[in-house]
Amino acid sequence: MAPSFDNETSLFNFVVRDGNGVKGIVDLGISKVPQAYIQPPAEQINKRNASKFVNHGVPKELLDSLKQTAHNFFGLPPEKKAVYRKEVSPSPLVKYGTSFAPEKEKALEWKDYISMAYTNDDEALQQWPVECRTPFRYGYSYNLITRRNWRLVVKVPQDVNMEKKGEWVAIPPIPGALVINIGDMLQIWSNGRYKSAERRVRTTSTKSRVSIPIFTSPLPTQKIAPLPQVVEKDGAARYREFLFSDYMNNFFGNAHDGKKSLEFAKTTSA
Fold first, then answer.
1. What local confidence, expressed as pLDDT, does residue 149 receive?
2. In terms of CB atoms within 10 Å, which of 11, 20, 77, 134 comes out highest?
3. What is the pLDDT of residues 47-91, one digit of tens each?
4. Contact 178, 58 (CB under 8 A)
5. 255 within a domain of the structure (yes/no)
6. Chain Cα centroid distance, residue 28
7. Where is the Non-haem dioxygenase N-terminal domain positioned along the sequence (predicted)?
């Protein structure tokens, strides 16, 4: 029976002092990776703003179906997509558009998007575009959009670039993996301990590209502020209290400019 290495000292001695290394652990036939090699998700995300996850339970065929559904929708004739333009959409759950805020931007973004909010199964099946309902029957809801993460945590397919210390870092894709990003709300709740991720996608001249983020966000009427226990530890709140709906209105009411939307919530002393 292979040792479990629950004792950090015994693991250190075996791997480092005795020179066995990781290969020695593998050769023992262990059934799970020792805890010392596992970085807690919270610590990992705190350092990187985003992490890739495998073994998440989402079938690969569902992910492939989502991407194909996106291509199918955006390949529809303009008049069929225009029905869902945010100014005239028959459903408050569905909004189709291009760029971010084209009426306010100095330079338009090279993207089209459709956003589909989920409230319950019945409304989604009744109000989402017919072309987008098949993947939903798997039991998942989704959003087809490319942009910075203004909510809590986002799951997106891979092949994106993340901003890190002023530089854009490519995230190499892993087949079937998901990328989980930190959004603005978690940055505010944590009083700045967790930093929201800024990301970008790059297209090519040879084929179309889709991003499929799934946003997890508060209710519009929910009040947002740093958690009291975090403020007590930090000594001061870096963000004021506000309604989530007010934050959304400010976010979508202006041209996108990096993480400038966080200025809406910052205190004067932050």
1. 42
2. 11
3. 555 666 777 788 888 888 888 888 889 999 999 999 999 889 999
4. yes
5. yes
6. 38
7. 54-129
> 58-62, 87-91, 116-120, 153-157: which range is least confident on average?
153-157
Q: How many CB atoms lie within 10 A of CB 263?
A: 10
Evaluate whether residue 66 is within a structural domain.
yes
3-state secondary structure of 46: helix
241-262 in b/e form (b: 16+ CB < 10 A) is: eeebeebbeebeeeebeebebb
Report the alpha-carbon distance of residue 189 to residue 224 in Å, rounded.
Answer: 7
Domain count, the chain: 1
pTM of the full structure: 0.67
* The CA-based dihedral angle spanning residues 122, 126, 132, 135, taken in that order and rounded to the nearest 10 degrees: 20
> pLDDT at residue 39 above 80?
no
Domain assignment present for residue 47? The answer is: yes
Q: Dmax of the chain from CA atoms? A: 70
Let me know if residue 35 belongs to a domain: no
CA distance 100 to 113: 9
Looking up residue 237, the CATH number of its domain turns out to be: 2.60.120.330
Query: Which two tokens mark 227?
Result: 């958690």
Structural domain range at position 206: 42-264
Cβ within 8 Å of residue 115, ≥6 positions away = 94, 95, 96, 143, 144, 145
